[in-house]
Design goal:
Length: about 180
């Protein structure tokens, strides 16, 4: 590999793999959440991920190239983290918080990747490709923002649950 174009095509193939892996994980996150609005957001982003894959394929076409068969080890690693969380046998509330943290990591990996790829596409004079990747980037950023809101929401719920438990413990102690 000697040229920026070759690097770009390799990284683009890597993103295609990442999107496939993340689309699979999003399906699991959709079924695991206890909140309707989180479920709706994961589901919608799953649909968007399929669109991201289509745009990546369009990008290859626009450049007259085919993707190489590669695995995104970062996305695969994030998926393994999700499996590892399950091995800890978390309560539904804890799983929810862990899944949101994992989802945030995935989105920021995608944001970092697409930000760099948009820049390289522009530098290579591939304007159509840059536009396609920018559309993916915008949707990743919107999803990352939603996850921040969901994290605040579940954090508040966790705080409330801790307070209620403390109250109950005090009441039990007072009754003794
Ligand atoms: Fe994506
Ligand atoms: Fe995403």
């Amino acid at each position: 590999m000697n040229t920026p174009r070759e690097l770009f095509l390799h990284e683009l193939s890597d993103m295609l793999s990442a999107e496939h892996i993340i689309a699979g994980t999003l399906g699991e996150l959709t079924s695991e959440t206890q909140h309707d609005e989180i479920k709706a957001a994961f589901k919608e982003h799953g649909t968007q991920s399929k669109e991201h894959i289509k745009r990546l394929q369009q990008a290859f076409k626009a450049m007259g190239e085919k993707p190489e068969d590669t695995t995104c080890h970062a996305a695969a690693g994030l998926r393994q983290e999700h499996e590892a969380l399950h091995e800890e046998d978390p309560s539904p509330e804890v799983l929810e918080m862990g899944n949101l943290l994992g989802a945030a990591k995935s989105e920021h990996y995608e944001i970092a990747s697409y930000t760099g790829l948009v820049q390289i596409a522009r530098d290579l004079g591939e304007r159509e490709v840059a536009d396609l990747l920018k559309q993916n980037l915008d949707e990743e950023q919107a999803m990352a923002k939603k996850i921040v809101d969901f994290t605040k929401m579940t954090g508040k719920e966790a705080k409330q649950a801790i307070r209620e438990q403390e109250k109950a413990e005090k009441a039990t102690a007072a009754a003794r």
